[in-house]
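Example A, followed by Example B.
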Amino acid sequence: MTKRVVITGVAGFLGSHLADRFLQEGWEVAGIDNLIGGYLDNVPSGVEFHNLDLTEATLELDEAFVGAELVVHAACTAYEGLSVFSPSLVVDNTVMATVNTLGSSIRAGVSKVVYMSSMARYGDHGDQQFSEEMETKPQDPYGIAKVASEGLVKNLCDTHGLDWVILVPHNIIGPRQKYDDPYRNVASIMINRMLQENQPIIYGDGSQRRCFSFVTDVVEPLYVACNSSLAHGEVINIGPDEETVTINELAERLSRIIEFDLKPQYMPGRPNEVPIAECSSNKARKFLDYRTQVKLEEGLVEMVDWIRIRGPKPFDYHLPVEIINERTPETWTKKLI
């Protein structure tokens, strides 16, 4: 009998790649997306697509889950910086989306939920690598909402007898990432600007340090987590812990790949931005056979090639900024990106 999985956020970056992986293995795939953060043409052929808003608990939403044994909840308005200025939008599309996904899953008799959380759960731990046993101390509404959603996953799944896994991916990059979005995805924004002969915009002094995961390096351990009992009841980071870069260094690498004369435009730092965000992958190696296979340079080259072929685009200011004051970035209020 064919197994059925529901993937929320299927038109998004990670969700669409994961759908490909399940289809490849012969699963029946149902996907849900409201198209806030993805592209419709990301949805792979063969996916039973439902254009639904997870913030609304409807009969139509419940019907999409019927017959599924597994749910991967990847949908979220993953806008960490914007959440400080649009908390209602981001929290609603994080917490309520999770509540309704869990409710539909339970009513449908789903056996297992895999929840995609965020490194924003950790907050600022100085120069320490983020490890799963650390205290969660998120610094913005997005991170707070992700931690709250993790609690809902644990509570409702434990109460109603569903297995659960919480995975914490780290700055995913690669083809299919939304690159005309001015509010998130630093590498995509830089590539889109440089391909239009515009200088990259860097918030603060550019010394913020990050790791970047190529999408296939996330999909494989994620697929293992979906199909293995070893990770049940675990919170597990997925991301590289070998190669880190500052935002300045990221801009320099991209400028070399694109052959762009780099003279970054610096803007005031954004409130509550964590200066160093690096993760430990030890637990992922133990439970999910995680290993980094795509180096940062290779991943950036593939990203640039994909955006070049698809064509650079004007940035789409498609989300409301709910709080506008002296701390709101001018890049958004004046549409400078």
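Example B, a separate protein, is given below in the same form.
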Amino acid sequence: MAYSEKVMDHFENPRNLGKMDNADGIGEVGNAKCGDIMKIYLKVDDGIISDVKFNTFGCASAIATSSMATEMIKGKPVEEALELSNKAVVEALDGLPPAKIHCSVLAEEAVKAAVADYYTKNGIELDPEIFGNGCGSDCAACDHCG
């Protein structure tokens, strides 16, 4: 299985790796089929993601997609983080092998779960158009990953 240089760079030198104390939003998702678990922590100041961290248990693609996803949302408004797509993460990494695309879906879902947690903690209503159709953290019911 061939990985791009960007995937290998984000795997070997992950950005924003670690746990965040006092996070404003935490999202954790997992896929029992492959064993990958992603946890994303958000720090939000005036509606902007001022800091983001992740912990991922999984393969090189899972770690690389987590790292890239955090880089793509850091410094952005929370609403913009919700627009992050797994396709954008894959493109930013110069591609993933087809069998590893599910890792980018998990990264997208982890970001959404962290934003949902932030919204819930701050009394912001969750839009079912955005939050109601994804896997969320119910991986047993998810068919995204085949």
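On Example B: The CA atoms of residues 82 and 130 lie 8 Å apart.
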